[in-house]
Amino acid sequence: MGRARRARRIAATAAYGGGVGAAGIGALGLIGFAVLKLEAQLARRVVGQPFDGSPDDNAVYGAGLGEPVQLVVLGDSSAAGMGADSAHQTVGAIVANGVSAFMGRPVRLTNVAVVGAESSGLEVQLANALEEVPHPDIALIMIGANDVTHRIDKAVAVRHLEETVRSLRAAGAEVVVGTCPDLGTIEPVAQPLRLLARRWSRDLAAAQTVAVVEAGGRTVSLGDLLGPEFAERPHELFSADRFHPSPAGYARAAAALLPSVCAALGLWGAADDHRVPDARRGEGVSPVAVAAVQAVRDPGTEVSATAVEGESRGPRGRWAVLLRRRRTPVSDRSELDGQTADTGADGSTGTGAVNPTDGAAAAVAAASQPDGMPTMVDGDGGPGDQGHTPEGSAPA
């Protein structure tokens, strides 16, 4: 069964309250299960608990005129910021500073994320958030890793996420979800558990995308966004437990999320609403399950609902548009370490590179020039020459 079909099935099961079993473990024999259980115990022993908790990043960020923009953050340890050294290094704080810089208004961050949370914990987090902020402007959710490591049924996990997104939308909030990261990139996890963790986390991420878009939100694929760089510079991008990101790692994730948060708030203007997908960048319009699979393969991509010729749904489900808003960062470390800064006519210097540990600056730089808009991808997730474009848009 293809991942697109599995994502549709998981999301459909979640919508109707189904879901039994333990994240695909039933397909393994008893011996295989015992091996995986032992590897999981060894991984937990290696990871350990080097942190007492996460920084308290609840505060007002930025400055400017007007009432503060209300940003709420829900999710697990990645949303809480475990591994960050200070409150300003969490994803929520970096995104809050970025939104403030673009809007010229302060942003009040209310972070109710809980270290170790599964998707089932979102209900309590939502109640806490709405008690503090009855009508948030924007909500950011990062969830899924613990559902995979605790072998929670994917349909059950997705149902909790979908219900949370619908409740936030009913409260008037725009919703951006950073989908489940690719746990196959985590160094302490051995094979074959690492291979299975990759499949489980990617399947969950694709199903999350389908459910979130159906519920009125948008997703950003985190996937193995940090995988290649983590492999090259693990001591810089991993925190002390070799599992959670370091401040530089959180800055990388925030840089992927910030452009979509700004788009959800309408900061890119009317042009963004009529942006045509750019097939050269792999952008396009397709059934949401197909877009979800493509997003899993390419971390940093956004998936949101759209319409084709005035119709929100086609023969294969809801139409969705896949966008690559994130700018490609400097990938070669030598470009930062060995490059000589150019001197301008006014005596100023600069290479255009951003310090990867400067979270807010890196995220704002990545989002400051949103790339231009989406063409159709074919039913297999590959770029197509012809096809539908979003309602009100012209072909590229």
UniProtKB/TrEMBL annotation:
<protein>
    <submittedName>
        <fullName>Lysophospholipase L1-like esterase</fullName>
    </submittedName>
</protein>
<dbReference type="InterPro" id="IPR036514">
    <property type="entry name" value="SGNH_hydro_sf"/>
</dbReference>
<dbReference type="InterPro" id="IPR013830">
    <property type="entry name" value="SGNH_hydro"/>
</dbReference>
<feature type="transmembrane region" description="Helical">
    <location>
        <begin position="12"/>
        <end position="36"/>
    </location>
</feature>
<keyword id="KW-0472">Membrane</keyword>
<keyword id="KW-0812">Transmembrane</keyword>
<keyword id="KW-1133">Transmembrane helix</keyword>
<dbReference type="Pfam" id="PF13472">
    <property type="entry name" value="Lipase_GDSL_2"/>
</dbReference>
<feature type="domain" description="SGNH hydrolase-type esterase">
    <location>
        <begin position="73"/>
        <end position="252"/>
    </location>
</feature>
<feature type="region of interest" description="Disordered">
    <location>
        <begin position="325"/>
        <end position="396"/>
    </location>
</feature>
<dbReference type="GO" id="GO:0004622">
    <property type="term" value="F:phosphatidylcholine lysophospholipase activity"/>
</dbReference>
<feature type="compositionally biased region" description="Low complexity">
    <location>
        <begin position="337"/>
        <end position="353"/>
    </location>
</feature>
<dbReference type="InterPro" id="IPR051532">
    <property type="entry name" value="Ester_Hydrolysis_Enzymes"/>
</dbReference>
